[in-house]
Request: fold
Amino acid sequence: MIDMTYEELLKVKGDKLMEKLKDEAIELNNDDDFVKLMSDEEEERLLKNSYIQEGFEQGIEQGIEQQTIELTKNMLKENADINFISKITGLSTDEITKIAKNMK
Reply:
């Protein structure tokens, strides 16, 4: 009930306990200190979720990069042309040359 708007709270119906809870929620929503506290908590939650999402995306990118490197190594082992590898993987010929040097 705390995160409900005033209009939503007014629509809540129920027994005496529900009415008391509704009144207390309205009172809390009008308390500037409480609203600020809730805003900080919400901001922290959103920030935490964005860090989790960013980490997830970075993990995917790193996984894709590692797969690209492994694919490049496999194609080099099969003596594939560097320009062909570049076209398939999207890596530059310089990047492919570096990978090839690190394989030796």
